[in-house]
Amino acid sequence: MGGVVLRCTAKTLKLLGARPGDLVKVEHTDNDWYANLFWLEGRKWLLLAHAGTLFSAVVPDIHKADLVPIGPSVVAVIHKELEAEHLPLDRFGILDSRAIELARTESRSVLGYMNEMARFCDYAVFEYGGLAHCDARELNRELRRELHLSKRSPGYLVPIELAGGSSGRGTVQNRPTLRVVDGLHS
């Protein structure tokens, strides 16, 4: 499988100059990748996330010229982050830069997690003392180790763990199972 569905937000599609005829209409799968743009400290950032694991890659200070053509750009970013985590480059299948298919976003859950990731980046950049002092490699590493609440058992997920990587420092070991509480009972 070399084809990759890249589900882009409207902002991303606009930046890429994609027209409705450029988009594929396929069912959402856990193998899809999502792309979103957000602004932080007056700069455009690209956030990529794998739908099934939320394995992510954030690229600060991105420009249209960095993304066109989109296939080689996205595959290079994903491969760079897989290498940083010592994961095989084919962890999410063979990523063929010539076989990227653009589509509209479909999963509100994935988009919600991505909004959470963008907020994490905002807080992290503040903690670093601004974009000029931000270590993008460390930010990506931290982002993939963030705990996200989930309705799926055990009640949370950690992207690097779902991707099969080492949790390493910064991830709590032997976490308890969390459960969703629908209401309080007296």
Q: What is the CATH architecture annotation?
A: 2-Layer Sandwich
The total beta strand count reads 7
Structural class: alpha/beta
**Averaged pLDDT:** 88
Number of domains: 1
Rg of Cα set: 17 Å
* Text of the CATH class: Alpha Beta
Unreliable stretches (pLDDT < 50, length at least 5) are 167-176
Query: What is the oligomer described by this structure?
Result: single chain
Architecture overview:
- This protein has six helices and seven strands, in the order βαβββααβααββα.
- The chain is of the alpha/beta class.
- It has a single domain, classed as 2-Layer Sandwich (Nucleotidyltransferase, domain 5), CATH 3.30.420.
- The strands form two sheets. Strands 4-3-2-1-5 form a five-stranded mixed sheet, with helices on both faces. The protein has a two-stranded antiparallel sheet with strand order 6-7.
- About 5% of the residues have low confidence.
Identify the notable features of this structure and list them briefly.
Nucleotidyltransferase, domain 5; single chain; five-stranded mixed beta sheet; two-stranded antiparallel ribbon; 186 residues; alpha/beta
Describe what is shown at a glance.
The chain is of the alpha/beta class. It has helices at residues 10-16, 64-67, 70-84, 108-128, 136-143, 159-162, and strands at residues 4-8, 33-40, 43-50, 56-59, 100-104, 148-149, 156-157.
